[in-house]
Structure to design on (578 residues):
């Protein structure tokens, strides 16, 4: 009895796949198309089925050294070669090099008489010879409807479709078969999608006069795959599919810090800046210096020797450079050195996917350290909120994976000011959110800046008033009045009041100092008088004591004299008595 063993399941071999080389397609198919099996590419007219098949062959030859066969039923080899020349694909050159075999099979319904023995044996022989002649590993059949259109016998049709797919599997070639979309089914016959190992649906839709192409992997036998609809573009380099990058959020992070370009704003962050590779959103109403903050960041990056891409949706490069020069930022040196590249266009020039692919390609060419997009709110004009959010999600993930610091500016309309939410709904996706706003006072409007969030670091919770000067953005010191922080004229009034109060306190202290000095003088004079009086009394007492001592000495001397005189008289009297 078999038991579930996760370790054995992991060790099982995975389905072998063939890389297509098509930008983004290998990512959502998780490695490419099934190796040695047929893949059905279906869609309506103009969605790029033939181009996908041609690019699959060309990329296989040029990038993986796998020769290929292109068998077309509607266009000749010359027509196909001419159609893809604008994309840089040289089919005739590859054919001359023996790497590609172009074969056009002409099928005219008027020349065919259906019988019960109708089959594709002739096609198998012809295709087999083309494969063997160059050792082809890849095959494209464009389109399968040309083989079976006009035949009412459904039994023969189904049998031959199954036999064709089985023959291609037995041949071991990785095949793309293109098919037109049916009414309510993926294909006209409604059978090809069931016998194919992989089915890719291409869709070309027009919404609000804007063309949008979508790709979806309908099924993929033996493999997991992306199940969403993915936008794709047909560009000068071929097809570009734009999947959501880094779905597992496993990208590397950096501890290196990047300055905002405004020293006082750096001080509002606990680490004096934000992390390299993080995404920063600057939101605010019109006229709150969002573009100036973005340009200050770009200027700082270039000053440190880094490279920056600046996407402007509202100003031309010349206008942006002129305006920033008026606030003390000269961007011309960075443009001349190639450190700064400004891409300016109206959002309505292209759809969201085209903008995203353009950003991807410019980043791959310019290899910037930072990207500024001003403003992302203008993208609402070329898509709804959900589409813009999806596009920005893919962009933010792409920039994070490449460790590129991104600064986005966004205009907040009046109805969203209280909620402090952006119309695009990306405020929760970014790492740092800076809000600039109008601070309305009595008869004036001032600007204030605050940090709403900064992941991974402490930050100030104050709303700081700032002004735009000839030397850039300057944050003013916080002034707190009786009712909280004051700005503008109230700030000046408060400062004058504080200065007057400080002056009054200073004057009061000086008055008290003078009073103390006077009291000190009076006290010192009193002490001097007392000392003089004490010295007078002391002299008087000393004089009295001296006089008393002299009196005592004279008295004592007199007593001694008197005593001597009395004794002499008695000695002479005694003999006389005798």
């Amino acid at each position: 009895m078999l038991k579930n063993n996760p370790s054995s399941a992991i060790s099982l071999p995975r389905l072998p796949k063939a890389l297509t080389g098509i930008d983004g397609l290998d990512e959502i198919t998780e490695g490419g198309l099934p190796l040695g099996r047929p893949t059905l590419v279906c869609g309506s007219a103009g969605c790029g089925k033939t181009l996908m098949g041609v690019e699959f062959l060309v990329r296989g030859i040029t990038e993986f050294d796998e020769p290929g066969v292109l068998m077309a039923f509607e266009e000749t080899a010359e027509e196909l070669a001419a159609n893809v020349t604008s994309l840089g694909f040289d089919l005739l050159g590859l054919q001359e090099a023996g790497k590609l075999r172009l074969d056009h099979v002409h099928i005219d319904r008027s020349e065919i008489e259906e019988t019960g023995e109708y089959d594709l044996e002739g096609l198998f022989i012809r295709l087999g010879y083309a494969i063997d002649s160059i050792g082809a590993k890849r095959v494209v059949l464009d389109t399968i409807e040309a083989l079976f259109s006009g035949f009412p016998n459904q039994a023969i049709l189904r049998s031959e479709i199954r036999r064709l797919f089985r023959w291609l599997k037995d041949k071991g070639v990785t095949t793309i078969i293109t098919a037109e979309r049916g009414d309510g089914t993926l294909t006209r016959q409604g059978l090809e999608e069931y016998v194919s190992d992989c089915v890719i649906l291409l869709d070309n839709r027009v919404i609000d006069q804007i063309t949008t192409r979508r790709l979806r992997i309908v099924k993929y036998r033996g493999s997991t795959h992306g199940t969403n609809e993915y936008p794709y573009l047909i560009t000068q380099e071929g097809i570009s599919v734009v999947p959501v990058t880094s779905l597992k959020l496993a990208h590397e992070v950096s501890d290196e810090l990047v300055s905002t370009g405004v020293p006082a704003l750096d001080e509002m962050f606990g680490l004096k800046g934000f992390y390299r590779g993080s995404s920063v959103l600057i939101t605010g109403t019109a006229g709150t210096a969002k573009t100036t903050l973005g340009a200050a960041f770009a200027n700082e990056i270039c000053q440190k020797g880094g490279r920056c891409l600046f996407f402007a949706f509202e100003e031309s490069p010349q206008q942006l450079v002129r305006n920033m020069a008026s606030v003390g930022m000269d961007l011309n040196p960075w443009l001349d050195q190639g450190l700064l590249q400004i891409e300016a266009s109206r959002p309505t020039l292209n759809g969201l996917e085209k903008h995203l692919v353009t950003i991807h390609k410019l980043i791959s060419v310019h290899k910037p350290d930072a990207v500024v997009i001003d403003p992302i709110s203008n993208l609402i004009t070329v898509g709804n909120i959900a589409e813009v959010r999806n596009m920005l999600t893919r962009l933010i993930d792409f920039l994070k994976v490449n460790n590129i610091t991104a600064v986005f500016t966004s205009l907040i309309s009046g109805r969203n000011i209280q909620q402090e939410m952006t119309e695009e709904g990306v405020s929760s996706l970014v790492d740092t959110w800076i809000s600039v706003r109008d601070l309305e006072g009595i008869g004036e409007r001032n600007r204030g800046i605050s940090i709403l969030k900064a992941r991974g670091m402490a930050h100030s919770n104050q709303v700081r008033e700032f002004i735009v000067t000839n030397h850039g953005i300057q944050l003013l010191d916080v002034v707190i009045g009786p009712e909280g922080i004051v700005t503008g004229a109230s700030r000046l009034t408060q400062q004058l009041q504080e200065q007057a109060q400080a002056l009054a306190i200073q004057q009061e202290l000086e008055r008290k100092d003078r009073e103390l000095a006077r009291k000190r003088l009076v006290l010192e004079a009193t002490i001097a008088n007392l000392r003089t009086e004490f010295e007078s009394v002391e002299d008087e007492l000393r004089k009295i004591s001296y006089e008393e001592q002299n009196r005592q000495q004279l008295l004592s001397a007199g007593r001694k004299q008197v005593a001597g005189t009395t004794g002499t008289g008695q000695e002479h009297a005694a003999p006389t008595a005798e």
Summary: Residues 17-110+117-241 form a domain with the Rossmann fold fold (CATH 3.40.50.300). Residues 1-9, 415-421, 572-578 have pLDDT under 50 and may be disordered. The first strand starts at residue 17 and ends at 18.
